[in-house]
Structure formats: C-alpha cells, structure tokens
Records
---
Amino acid sequence: MIVIKIGGSLGTEVQNLAKEIAEISKKEKIIVVHGGSYETTEISKRLGKETKFVTSVSGFRSRYTDLETVQIMEMVMAGKINKELVKLLQKSGANALGLSGADGKVLLAKRKDSIKIIEDGKKKILKDDFTGKVESVNKDLITMLLEKGYLPIICPLAISPEGDIVNTDGDRAAAAIASSLSADLVVMTNVDGFLKEGKLVTELNLLQIDEAYQFADGGMKKKLLAAKEAIEQGSPRVIIARGNLDNPLENALNGKRTVISR
Amino acid sequence: MIVIKIGGSLGTEVQNLAKEIAEISKKEKIIVVHGGSYETTEISKRLGKETKFVTSVSGFRSRYTDLETVQIMEMVMAGKINKELVKLLQKSGANALGLSGADGKVLLAKRKDSIKIIEDGKKKILKDDFTGKVESVNKDLITMLLEKGYLPIICPLAISPEGDIVNTDGDRAAAAIASSLSADLVVMTNVDGFLKEGKLVTELNLLQIDEAYQFADGGMKKKLLAAKEAIEQGSPRVIIARGNLDNPLENALNGKRTVISR
Amino acid sequence: MAECPECSCIIEIENPEVGDIVECSECGIELEIISLDPLILEIAPEEEEDWGE
Amino acid sequence: MAECPECSCIIEIENPEVGDIVECSECGIELEIISLDPLILEIAPEEEEDWGE
C-alpha cells in the first residue's frame, strides 16, 4: 500500500502521474492526498478576499484561516481540485473516489482556536483561526473503500470533535494517513529530493533527520517533519522525489530520490 | 430508507432540517441529495463568469454548462454546499459523508455533447454542453456506506462513461437514487406541495400525474416528472412538501404534503 | 439555398445561423446548419433533451 | 503598566497591542494582552503551534 502526496496543480505533470497511478493501482493499493494552497490564493483573489499569511513560532508559513477562508478552501480543494483529480483518474481507468477529511471523519483534527505566531518580529496570539493538526484517521473507512476497488483521493480539510472544518497541512495529513495504515509514503515535490548543500541525499534515517533539518528550506523542512512523524507512527518508508518529470511514480519507487526509514 | 432532496441554501431552514435528519437517521436509513443552482449563479458572477440559461425543447430552463461552468459547480456544489451540509450534520451528531456523483461512479450519466434548445423562438443545437441524465446509480457503494453507519450526502454532478463530469438535474438524480434503492423520496420545496388552482392536492397516483402536469409551473413540473420517474423505476412513494418550516421532515412524513404513489 | 442531405431537394433558409435547426420543406426531416459560407446542412442529432442544476 | 496574573508584580509594556505575547520580567511567564484600556493581561495559552495549506 502506498500513500502518494501531490500538490494542487492540475497541469501536465499530474496528468502523467494519473496514468501511472491508474496503472500501478491495478496491483498495489494506492491512496492520493493532495494540497491546493496556490490555487486557493488565486481563487481568493478573484473573489476579492485578501489572503493573510502568518508565520508560526518555529518559522512555518501558514495561511490565516478564518471562516470565509475555510469555505473558499472547501470550494477550491474539496471541490475543484479533488473532483478534477477524480475525473483525471476515472479517465485513466481507476475508480477514484474523492473525500475531504470531514467526510465520515476520515481526518479528525484538534482545532486550536488561538495559535501563537510571529508578526513584525512580535510574538502574538491569533484567534478565530480554523487550523489544526490531524489527531486520528478513519482507517476502517479507507480500508473498506480500498478492498472494494476504489482509489481514495483525500483533501486535507479535517473535522474537529466540535464539528468545525479545519485546515491541516497536506504533508502531515498524508503522514498521518500512511502511518495509520502502515503504508509507504511518497511525497512528490519540485526537486529531486532532500538536497544537502546542493547534493541529493539518497538515504536518511530517523536520527539523521534532525541534522538534515538545518540544511532544508521551509517547504522541505515541513516534508522532513512529516516524514519523521510518519515513520515514528508506523510508516515503514517515506520517499521524497520529483513530481514534474515523465514517470514520476516509477522514478520515486526505483530512481533518483531520498528514502527515509527507521 | 428515505432519500431527501433539498435545495442548495445553507440558511436557518436547512439547520432545522439537519437536526431532524440526524435524529431520524438513528432509526431510519437516510440519504440526502442537494442542489445548488442559486449559489452557483452567485459565485459565477463574483468570478466574472456570465451565466447563460437556455430553454429545453419542452420548456425547462437549464444552465448552459460549458467546461468552466462545470468547474465552478465542482467548487460550489461538490465543494462548499456539500461540505457545509456534511459539517452541519456532523455537528448534529450524524456521521455524514459527502460525495459527488463522480466519486466511485455513484451517478453515471450519458452526456449529450449536443442538445436541442429554443433560443429567441428558434430551435437550435447547442454544442460543448456538459449536461446529462442519470442512467445508473452505484447502489452497492451507497448501501455499504449506510450499513457502516454513514449518512451519504450526494451532489448531482455525475460522471459519463468517457470520464467527463456532467451537470444533472437534482430532482431527477434523487429520483434515480431512490428508485435504485427502492426507497421513499421526499422532495423539499418552498410550497406546501402540488397545488391545483391554489389548492393543495394531498394524493396523486401515476395516472393522475400527466393531468396534474398541466397545472404545474416550471419548478413543480420538474418535480412531478422526477416523481413519475422515481415511481416507475421502483420507488414506493414520493412526497413533495414544504422545507421552510420548523419540523420539515416530521411534516413531510405525517403532515401537510402531496403523496404520490403507484 | 442548400441541399437537403436526406432527400437532396434544394431548401431556402432566411437569415440562417450556425446551430439553427430547420425542417426540410420537402421531406420534413430536422436539419442542423453546420456552416454558412458555404451553407451546409446535416441531419440534426436525435438527442433527447436534457437539463441540469 | 499592568499586573502579572501569575506573580502579581507590575509590568511595564511599550506600545502594547491586543493579542501581543509578552514575558513577565519577574516570573518569566508568557502573558497575552487582552485589552488596552484598561491594560489587562492573561496567561498565554500553552498552544502547540499549527499550520495548514
């Protein structure tokens, strides 16, 4: 079983990947988790809603997610991107089934109604933010769908115990799903893998991740953190590889990539 | 088992209904099908996309659904409305699970890439229209989800055999779902039921529907047609009742309504 | 003026537009105007009508 | 000037804004500025940080 995390772009690269996924899903159970941050910002602009990014205390850039933003993310991520991916995979012959984390409580997240951020160098408390961290995965639902031949496509909008829809980080949501199912996690990105001073590091173990962290930029830092969480909680292997080439999945499984394991 | 068709509005009326549905779903299997035409037009306007309505040969008003419109419907119906209904029902204690018809081929529809319309009194052919009629329902998936305690919330965007996402009429999609499951169909609307010259008709059978048709306006005509299709294809009973009152479901099942049966 | 693809009779059409459906005055079949210059007719598809949300 | 809810010492804060987090100069606990007029402090929530898409 493989969980594949992809971005939110619907360009040619994901069309290549869809064909590969449909092919490989004939002999290997696959779950796709997707993002959608870029398109969310674009559609927000078109709807006249200004996007505010905040920086978390340990330096991660995060979208300030008020209620209106949650609804825009429902439209862009749970709506357009999720269903366009379903369409793409159905066209490639896989019986794709799209879900947001709110559906059937696939992703349960604890919502923090106030989070600490850094703004203009000052530490601040931000309220009414619908952001959270995935705390549990409905693996019975996912397993049931896989056994019936469906290919789940999951959007990282989770639900809180109080019933609020919450924005969660796609990489970490994919890590939570992979570890709950003891599945490998493949994270597609736009570089060959984790680069240390420009050179691809092909293998990392849990102990080396903290050190690697120092050499990574924001985006890669998040992926290394997600990889660490995945492996600590039960995923056998995490692969970080390039998504924008002809056979991205084949390459990720056997070619040029960073493999992280215990 | 009851299929409940509601509109796309997320106002107080649907909040009342959600509590009732969550309550009744403890002892009766329930599936919700929703529309979203009004909100689709609103969001299209905000996105600068002009909505073009065409009239079908037998007089039904229909949205000209080009590819860009399909993506806006994915955002508004499969995204915002579907997930806000999931959230509302999760908050009321039901384990709601939202799907579009494309997911797992819940709704398979035949897409007509050219349809006949009337425009300025002239009969015309309209191409590149992604509209269609539901031809089959994946009742195994719906039944499986119901048995595991989920409450399916279905958006009437279907998928064609070629893998295109297609706009279908919500009332007729609900009729197809109800008849495939031999379930009752409750259609919520903003009047007490079918009115003949202003007076509520509480009972109708299949033979009387054609006659009733002459007294109905556009919206009610579509609901009578959907009721006829539901009963002809296996639904025991179709109820048309008012949705904007305090206990709409209780009223629909036992109060002031139009009941249609064989 | 254009030829009916069904019965080959010549039909006259006032201010034709692409996509219009016209009936052949001879055999009565429904025809679709495919192009204006030259004026070309095809037998209109038998599509059932449809509508959505 | 405002009183630290933890150790009751009086703290001076330059250009305070609602939502700012400040540290008590005496006991070092993190405090949140709840209102400006009057200036009121509360112990800042122990929230883990979070981020999303």
---
Amino acid sequence: MIAIENLVVQFGGVRPIDNLTATISAPVSGLIGPNGAGKTTLLNVLSGFVSPAAGKVAVDGRDLLALHPLGRVKSGLRRSFQTEQVVEDLTVAGNLFAIADHVVAPSERAAAVDAALAFTNLRGAAHMLGRALNLFQRRLVELSKCLIGQPRLVLLDEPAAGLTNEESATLREMILRIPGELGAQVLLIDHDVELIRSMCTETLVLDYGRMLALGPTEEVLASPDVRRAYLGEF
Amino acid sequence: MAARSILVDNLTVARGGKRVIHSVSFAVAPGRISTLLGANGAGKSSTVMAMAGAVPTDGGKVRLGEETLTGLPSDRIRRHGVALVPEGHRVLGQLSVEDNLLVAALDPSAAARKSGLDRVYEIFPELAERRRQQASDLSGGQKQMVAMGQAFIARPDFMIVDELSLGLAPTVVRRLAEALTLAAGQGIGVLLIEQFANLALDLAQHAMVLERGRLVYDGPSATLRENPEILHGAYLAQ
Amino acid sequence: AAVCGEGTGQAATGEPIIIGAITGKTGPDDFSNSTRAAKAYFDCLNANGGIHGRPVQYMVEDDQWNPEIAAQLVAKLVDDQKAVLMVGNSSFVECGANADFYKKAGITVVAGVGVPRECFFASAIAPTNAGPRVSMLGAMGYALDQLGAKSVVCIGPNIPNVGSWSCDGVMLLAKEKGFPASTILIDQGSADSTSVMLQAASSNPDVIVLGMSKGSAVPLLVAAEEQGLNEKIKFVSAASAYDLSVPETIGPGWDGKFYVNMEFNDLEATTPDNQNWLAVMDQYGQKSDPRDTFAQAGYLAARIAEKALMSIDPANITRETAGKAVADIKGFKSDIFCAPWYFGADQPRHNANSTTRMAVSEGGKWKVVSDCAPSPDPELADIRAFEKSAGINQ
Amino acid sequence: MSVENQTLARPMAPASTIRIPRELYAIPIVMAVFTLAVAVFANSFWLTAATSAVALSLSVTGLATLYGQLGLVSLCQFALVGVGGWVTLRIGHAWHPPFELSMLTGGSVAAIVGLIFGIPALRLRGLYLALVTLMLAGGFQTIIGAWGFPDGGAGFLGRADGAGRAMLPRPDIAQGSVPYFVYVSLIATLGLLISQWHKVAKPGRAWALIRKGEHVAIASGVNVLAYKAWAFALSGFLAGIAGALLAGNVGQLDGRAFTAFESLNLFALAVVGGVYNWYGAVIAGLLLRAVPALLTDLGIDGYVTIGIFGVALFQALATAPAGIAGQIAGLIERLTRRGARP
Amino acid sequence: MNFLPFIISGLGIGAVYALSGVGLLVLFRATGVLNFAFGAIGALGAHVAWQLMEWDYPLPLAILAAVLTSTLISFLYGRFLAPLLSYRDTVVRAVGTLALALFLIALMGVVWGELPRRLQFPTDQMYLTLFGVRLTFTRIIALVLSIVVVSGITLLLNTTRLGLDMRALANDRDLSAILGVRITRTETAAWIITGIFAGLGGLLLADLVRLQGTFLTFLVIPAIAAAILGQLRSLWITAFAGLGIGVAEALLTPVDWISPYRSAAPFVIALVAVMILGSTAQAALKDR
Ligand SMILES: Nc1ncnc2c1ncn2[C@@H]1O[C@H](COP(=O)(O)OP(=O)(O)OP(=O)(O)O)[C@@H](O)[C@H]1O
Ligand SMILES: Nc1ncnc2c1ncn2[C@@H]1O[C@H](COP(=O)(O)OP(=O)(O)OP(=O)(O)O)[C@@H](O)[C@H]1O
Ligand SMILES: [Mg+2]
Ligand SMILES: [Mg+2]
C-alpha cells in the first residue's frame, strides 16, 4: 500500500506535483494522465531520484522518504524507465545479474536470475547481447530485472509503449502474475487505456500535478472529468 | 509542384553486421497516409531510417520522383522535403523548446518561421507554455510533441513518423491524427509507423506489413482491416 | 684547411672504434650542437688516418630530454654496441640518469656540455664546459669587479640540480662577500615573464643574474625591456644565453646592457685552434650546423678523445685502456680554453674548465669585454685544492 | 518474506550464465609467450624499452578500465604513475625495505591519490571530467617539477648533495635486466588479471549500469559512489605500481617526465591500443615505449617521430573505433568462425 | 609588498588565457570538439609571420599571412579530418585534435626548430603607465580583442541561424542532420572561425609570451582552466575567468613560499571552482 500525503514537487517555477494526497492499495494499479501531468515525477519521488519539497510517502506503513534510494531498492522497490535502459554490451543474463549482484545473496544469484528469465520466457535469449534485442525483448528484460530479489513494490513507467497489441497482451499476463507469485504490489503508467482497463483494478489519474480521480478503474474511466481531460471526449 | 512519390526499390539494410531488411520495395504516394506495420523487430525503424539517410543502406534504391535519395546525407534528404520523426522522442536537450523548433524550420525567412511556430503551438499548446524551457526537462510525451513539431515546421512534402503515439496521451494522439489527416489533405504524403494497428488502419488509406524484414502485404488498408489474420500472422511470426 | 689526427689525408680503413654520445635534440631546446661538431671532427679524423689507421665510428643518440630514454640509449650504446668511450655528450637529463651506469660499466665520458649538477659530481664524467653554476659565478664575479654590483637578484629555472644549484652559488658568494642577494626560481612553463621581472625589480637590485636556457631568458629580457628595466639594471647571464642569435633577437634596447659569460673563446677568434674548429665545421660539418659555444665544446671533447686514443696501442683499444688514457690526460692545450684541460684521475668529480670570459650584446652581436678570469665559485674549493696539489694551472 | 514469495528462487539447474571467460586463461599464456620471446631475443636496448612498455601497460589497463567500463576519462594517469614512482623512491631511499614493499606502498598511495583525484569525478562526467583531471595533471606537473624526485639524499625531498645520485636498487631476485624484465612481466600479468576479473565480474556489471545512467544504476541497487571510487582507486593503484616498476627499471625518475602532456598522450594511446580488450593495454604500452624506441633505433629525427605519431594516432582513431585490440579481436573472431565452419 | 603592479601585469597574461579559452569554447559550443591543437595552429601562423618579417615583408602582410595560414589549417582539419571522428564521443574527438597538434609541433620543429624567437609589433613600444607598470598596447589589444570576440560570438550563437545550427550540432549531431541542419557547412564555418581566432591569438601570444612551437601548443592547458570555470558554456565567464586566473597567478609572484608553484594557479583555481560548482550539481547536469 502506497500512502501519499500532501506531496509537493517543485522544479524552479514548475510544480509537476502539487499537493497530492492519495492511497493506492490494489495489487496492480494504474497511473494515467495527460503528458506532463507528473506521472514520471511521482515515480521518481517514490524511487528517490527527486526529493519532494513537502509531503509524506509511506509504503506498507513505512516512511519511504526517510530511506536512501539504495535503501529503497534493498527493501524491495523496483522500477523500470520510460525509455528502456538495457545495457547493450551485457547479455540478457548479465543485465539481470547486474541487479542480482546487489539484492540477492551470492549463493542464490544464479537461481534468482534463472527464475526471472523463466518468468518472462527469456531463457532462450539468456546469452543474447543487449544490443541485439528488439523492443519487446528489451521491455521483457526490464520487467525481469524488477522481479529479482524479493520485490515488494514494482513501478513500471510505460512498460508497453511501442509494443503491439499481441505483445502488450503477453506482457500484461506476466505483470498480472507478479502480485500472486511474488507478493509485490505493482504500479504502472501507460497511455493505453485499454491495457490499463484490462489489468488494473485501481487507477489514479493525475492532471498537472493534482489528483483528478482515484478508484476502481472502470469508475475512474467513466468519470466525466477523466473523459474530458484525458480521453478528450465530451 | 508535380506530385512525386517516394519509391523504395529493393531496399536492403544491415544492422550490426546482420541483414534486417531484405529487398523491400514499396511506394509512398503524396496526399495520402500510408502505414507500415509489423511486430517489434520486424525492421520498420530500420526501413525508414534508411529512407531518411540516417542508417546506411546495403543495397537497393530510394527515389523521390526522378531523384535518387540513397547515398545522400540525411540533412540533404530533409531538404528534399522528406521529414523523419525518429522513434523514441529524441530532441536537442540543451536547446530551448523554441530553438528546437526553429532549428528544424528550413525556410529561413522571419515570416515563415513565425507562421511555422504558430502552427506548431496551435497543435501543441503545451509547448507554447514551455517555449523557453530546456528540452531535456520536458516529460516524455512533451518531447514527442517537440519532435512532431519539428517535422511540421519544416513544411515537408513527405512526413515519416516512427511510433506516432509513443508516450502520448489519447487526447494528444487524437489531435495529431487530425493534423496528419489535414496535412495529407493538403498534398503531403505521410508514412506512419504505429503500434496501435487499429489507429493506423483508421487513419491510413494504404498499408504495408513487414515480417522479419520482408514485405508481406502491400495494399489498401481496408483489406487489412477486414482480414486481421494477415496482421496477426505477421505479428506472431516474430 | 682543417687539421685532424695525423693529417695523412688517407681515409682510415681499419676496424672501427666505437664511440657513443647522447644528446638532447628534440625537446624544449636543441642541444645537439656539441655532438654535431664532434661528429664533424671525427669525420675529419677518419679522413686523415683515423687513430693509427682505425676509423672512429661515432654513434649519436637523441634522448629527447627524457631520462628514461637516456637510460635506454645508454644501454644500446654501451651494452649492445660496445662503445669504448662516450664523447661530446650534451644533455639536460643524461648525467643524472646515467652517471651510475657509467661507473658500473667502467666507461669514461668526455662530455661536451654538462648542465645539471650531476655532470660535475660524477667520477666517470668529465665535461669540457664549465657548467651553469661556474659560468654564472664567472658572470657574477665580473658584475662585482667591473659593474660594481652592490645588490643582486639571481633568477634560475625551477629545475632541481640546475637553477637552485646555480643560484645557491650566488647566495653563498653573497654571504662570503657581504652583499645582499635573493633568488627567484621560475617555472619554465610559466607564461608570465612580466611578473617575474617586477618581482626581481621590487628589491631594487643593480644587477640581475640569469641562469636559464636561451629559450627562457629571451622572454624575460623582453619583459624587462617592456618595463624599462634595461635602463636601470644591468643584466648578466650564464653561458646558456651565449648564442649567436640572442643579441639580434633581443634587439638594440640591450646594447651594452646584457652581459653574458663565455665558457670558451670568442666564436670568431682568429687563434689557430678556433680557426681549425671553424675549418673542420666548414669542411666536414653540415652548413646548417651552428657554430656556437656548444659546438666548440663538442669539438674539444672530440680532440681530447683523439689525444687519449692516439696514446694507446691501436690493437688494444678497449673500454679500460681508453678510459685510462683519458684519465691520464693533463695539460691539454687549446686556445679555445682559457686554461689547459685535464681529467683528474681518481678524483670523485671533474670540473677542469673553471676560467671564463665575458661578452656584451652590441649591435646584434656579442663583443668580448674581458680576459680569462677564474670563477669565484666557493664550491670549487676541492677542485682548486686538487689543481694545486697536482701542480695544474699554477 | 512468506513462502510463496520464494517461488522465484526455486533452485533449478542454473543456466550456464557464469562462465570463466577465456581471457582469464589467455592473459597468462599470452604474456608468458611474449615475455619468453623478449627475454630470449632482445638486446639491452630492447630489454629496457620492453620493460618500460610492459610496466606502462599496467597503468594503461587502469585507464582502460575507467574509460572502457565507466566511460570516465582520466587525463591524470601519468601523474599517478609519478606519484607511485615518487613514493617508491622515497621509501626505498629512506628505509631500504624490500622492493616489493616500496612498490606496494607506492601503489597504495597512488590509489589514495587517485581516489582523491576521483572525488570531483564522483559527480562529473564526459569531457568536463576529463578536463578536470587534466587540471590535476597540470597542477602535478608544476609541483613535481618544483619538488623534484628524491635522488637518495636525506630529508623529506631527499636531494643528494656532494656525491652523485643514489639509485633505487631493484628487487633482490631480479637484479639483472633479463630477470627484471621477467619480474615486471609477472607483475603486469597479475595486474592485467585483476583488472580483467573486475570487468567480467560484479564490479564490471555495476560499472556497465553506471555507464548507462546513474539513475538506472541506483535503481538496480548499485552504490554508484562506491563503485566509481573503487574504479578510481584501482586505476590509481595500477598506475602507482607502474611508476614503481619504472623507478626500478632506471633506478630513479625525473620530474619533467611527468607532464600533463604525457597523461594526454597516455590516454590517446590507450584509445588507439583499445580499451575494450585486455591486450589493448599491452599494445598501448608498446606504442608508448617500444615504437618510439624502434624509430629512435632507425635513427629517425625526434620531430619526425612526433609527426609520425600524430598521423598514426589520427589514422588509428579514424579507422579503428575499438582500437587496434578491437581489430585484432575482430580478426580472431572471423578466423575462429571460419575455422569452425568446415 | 605592493601588489598593484602585479594586478596590472596579470591582466596582460590574463588576456592571453581569456583569448585562448574563448577560442576553445567557440569551437566546442559549435561542434562539440575541444581543440587541443588551438595553440599549435596559432603558433604555426605566428611562425609564418615571423618568417615573412625575416624576409622583410611588411608587417600587415605578415599578419594577414599568419591568420590565413591558421585559418587554412583549421579549415582543412575541420572539413576533411574532423568528420571522420564525428560519430565518436567528445573525448575521442578532442584526442583527434591532439594528433593535429603533434603533427604541427613536428612541422614547426623540422622547419624552424626550437630557437627562441621574438615576434615584435610596433605596439610593443607604445604603452600606458599604470601604478608604475607599463601596459603595452599589444596587451591592451589582447584585452580588447577578447571582449570583442566574446561579444561577437555571443551574438552569433544567440541571434543568427548559423549560431542556432551550431548549437544544435554541438548538442546532437545525428539528430541535427535528421532535422536538416547542414552539417558540413556549419561545422566548416565553425572551424574557419576558430582558425581566425587561433591565428590572431597565436600572433599575440608570440609577441606577449614567446614564439616557440611546443610552448605555445601547451599553453592551451591553462587556457582550458578558464573554459572549465565557464562550465564549457559561458563565453563571458570564460573570458573573465581567464583574466582572473592571469591576475591571481601574477599576484602570487611576490609571495615567496608559493611563488615557485604559482603556474599551478590556473589548475588549482579550476579545481576549487569545480568542487564548489559541482556541489550545486549544475555543472554535472549540464555536462554531456
Ligand atoms: N544497432 C543495431 N545493432 C544490431 N542489431 C540491430 C541494431 N538496430 C536494430 N537491430 C536489429 O534489427 C532488427 C530490426 O530493428 P528495427 O528497429 O528496424 O525494428 P522495428 O520494426 O522498428 O521494431 P521496434 O518496434 O522494436 O522498433 C531487430 O532485430 C533489431 O534487433
Ligand atoms: N528537471 C526538470 N526541470 C523542470 N521541469 C521539469 C523537470 N522534470 C520534469 N519537469 C516538468 O514536470 C512536468 C511533469 O513531468 P513528468 O515527466 O512527470 O510527466 P509525465 O506525466 O511522466 O508525462 P509523459 O506522459 O509525457 O511522460 C512536465 O511539465 C515537465 O516539463
Ligand atoms: Mg513520463
Ligand atoms: Mg522501431
């Protein structure tokens, strides 16, 4: 459960997050909003790359902001980035080891990496170099990295951007397995409303730093405010 | 200007020493929207990057009417009227939003620059608010708007857009779709790469499907919409 | 015409005698003039019967002002090529890098131009020149005696064993004679000459002594002239600035105001050996080889080596016999030297050339202004004591 | 965590994801062959040149680790070689301990200095960092120029007066030039193994992430500061050992040989040698010392040598993006692939 | 101790740093290349001027020939060689110019050797006296020139199309090409401009400091300190930093215990500045 209280982020004159209060508790929840609404910024606050000007964030009751970014990773926070960040000259397995090195005990690393590869069906590609991967495979590697070392909270920034419908469907099935099999909560950003609708039980809509709506996805998407501001319907 | 088409003739492209496009031929006609579909890794980006001179070709030709584009540097191709919006919202991060747009304006006259800017800001009012902001500080979607704006302001004869909706909110995608339809109406040829096949097929009159670097369909988009199995086959083949 | 060796006019054809040399050609300054002159002399010698019929094979290597390379090259010359003597060496770094090696290898060095302290404090190295410190103190002596120096500033390069060594001599002399003196050590890489001159002028000296290579001395003089210091203060320099190009480079503003020490005779002196040197250069050297004081040093080194080798059995020229022959040299006379040169066998250090002259910049040329005078360097005490005990130069 | 969370970690036959890379075997073998060939065939001149070359390749491998692995450019590596040499000489002259002890101290001090030099780098990247390190090299040049290297005398600076310079004795087991060359090769091989191990193991992966982006690295649990600092310390250590070995080769060092320009040159040749393969460092070492020695041996004018170097440097940069080592690697790969086909 | 004279004297050398720093930055901001050969290119021009004056050609002709030579070298490298490295990272592109510097050092060494030379202009004989120190007109010209250069280039970069193209190019060459920026033309223009600056700077340095190939070549290293203070971006800060460094270096001259180390001043100042600026994380973010 992520409890956000009066969160403010300020970059010079811009306030990408403006006094946001929200509690997100579904196993897989969505985060949507227009471009520049502050979605990535919120993820950056959660992972510690941006220090908020004010406010509180608690995950499962623990004060998140008190933790150093590395501490957050150690305690189970995982994230992917809006532009994929696979290391070109490491193999797929190497990319996973790069995180396993720091969050899994030495004797269990190989097993943890293998399990993550199995989860995302990447075992066959384990020895491919990062640079030879296509976008879908890269997104899968990013997802696999989030599964290593007992994750508690997985943050995904547009994990399906650029994927075809079939590919997003595959990805969705994998993401949906995460809470059950790994016990981690997932929060994901995407602009594909259908994808959000089909996988998130709860959705938070941001609009220029403020909360526009929060609740069960169907309700949220049906709300007139959201239809107007985000979907452009009248 | 006589309505010329871009003719891609037996194009072959290698990336990292491996052939990823095998003798692909097609045409992009002026005044209409064409779309190039295919699974990830099928070679869509490689095809259009080669057309724009941003990656070297390994064989074949790209022509614009009578002129040969293959072998020209990418800035020359742009000046021939073929504007590419590359994948992955790339912008000139150290420049302001407005400078990003102005640098892409090919007509140097002050009036043309002004009207070009106005037009882009009309499509993306978000950018007008941030015209002085450094582009690296934009959100992902805002960068994509800048990239699209850079194509619009060049007043090209052809626009090639790689991953149109990538990272854009539905409202913005809708605005863009309208802008592209308008552009096609004014005689501009558009080649669209788009992950949402439905959106692409709705917009386009003409469609092509790439499968592992080979063209497996080239025809009206309506046919493809009615026979989704062609597309599914291509997507699953990967 | 050039006179060398036995003057037979017959080319030497016997088994070559290997002589090596290390010079600093590429780097902050070109120091190869000494070895060029020595080469010309050996060519002349080879064309005139060589050493009792055996030609000298003179192998010169460029240390590029890098001690590591100097050490590599000495291994090549001494270990690989089996040189029997080193002659005409002229380098900023070589003595420091190789002194120990020479001693271990048992090879004797008749250096042309020794610069750092190590060249004058080694048992196997005997330079023909006086060295920057002796030369600077020679200039200092002239400033005291002839220019009436009352207060002195010494400017030297901030190079260990070169600049501080020289200026320390001036300070020591100042203490002995009781005149105020101060030292400024400068980084040769520094671009700011004006500040150095302002600093020097701030203690109101009447003489400034320079101990730098010509490349660094010229900018200092330029800066001094810019500030009008040439009108108020006399400038004297060690022989390192005694280069034919310098008076013309610094221009007429320095006429009669910039004095320089000469370790050897006037370059244009009409004395026989100096004329022979010029003849050798003309006949056997390159046109482009400079005819300067360093070339005189190299010529003399070659002649000393010749004299030593001539004295031994040509069939038995080894590192040992050649070294011994050089060590035995005493009273080697040339009108280019002020006093006869000797090696000083068994001495822990060598500095035979310690009597020098002075010249002044005048109309784009150097004009000799003094006779030979012993350098008043206090550090020469051991040398003087040895000379006395051996009955040399008395 | 609860039991069902462990599903991921279910033990299975782990895919052979960790292999001992071929290089770790190749390094000792190749180095042994090279050492033997030089020791048997080289004369004194070539032995000293080869000793310097091999010693310097150790400092290049440190540089290559920083640049190839982290994308960090250090333009003060030769200054660190100087630091290592200075400390080794100082300790050697002052207390006459075994050479190894002076050398390790030299390496450690250089590692610490490298770490201190690296502190600005913990925040900076790219050219900006490169230039900051160049400033360090410039400052070092001035200071060491003024201080000078110890030459065996008493006192902190150890300037000799009176008698000639003292020389740093070589290790007891390697007095002669051939044994000393073998000794240097042995230490260089160890150094190359250490840095190669770093590349293929945990630190290498962490560095790869840092190269990708610091946020990416942090998100993977990498302690960016610690790993960067470690890279700088390792690089400094290797440079310091190289300095110690150089000091042992000649018996002394000269302050003027450690200019900022030398650091620039070291980096340039590291790139030409190739920073992505271990033998790139050896090639760079040879380029730094053996090739000039060859040109000197051929009697080529010093300036012409510099000019040839300039032209060759550009040629190599323009035609071999991964350096000469990269081209060799490409060749080997092509040959083995062809060999594997029939 | 009176420090005033040293301030005046430092302005002279400061102008030298400023001019070189700005010259470096112009090319860097336009093409992303840090030109280590800047000093060498200027030195070559200055040698040509010296040679012509030795042959008794008139001064204006010698100056013209010097600037033309430097511009030509810069143009040739920028047009034909630099593009070969254009896809490499900035440091490698900088190292490419190091190759040019080596080549030019060799050329000057073979043709002219390392003799001490002096390039003299009539302005050396004219001076103002300030606090007992003579400030020659050559130094004043250097000061004025650096200001003019900074203003001119600032104007060019910020207001002209060429300037915009240059900034775009320095940011991302590939993308700029895709956007239609004429790469070759823009880069060549930038190289020609720095060539002119290098020529002028070389002439002034040969007069103010000394005419010696390697020495002038390596003078870029302290000049880089000024560029670092300008965070490789600001021309004005770079120019003033250059002056400041020169003054600081001169001011240390009369302080006995530090005087021998004062040529480390540019480096130390740059390092301290980085430590301070670095902590605001600004420099780190803007860098790339
Ligand atoms: N730089 C590269 N080096 C090696 N292989 C590459 C490189 N770039 C692309 N490829 C490969 O080329 C093939 C085609 O890639 P391309 O990017 O053109 O596909 P795409 O259809 O645009 O897919 P995507 O939707 O992933 O962008 C893929 O298999 C990819 O792995
Ligand atoms: N470092 C920064 N400095 C100034 N403004 C910033 C900075 N980073 C982000 N912003 C601004 O903050 C706002 C929120 O950005 P953010 O990246 O969070 O948007 P987003 O919701 O992820 O949008 P998108 O869907 O387009 O990725 C944007 O308007 C952006 O311009
Ligand atoms: Mg975002
Ligand atoms: Mg693509």
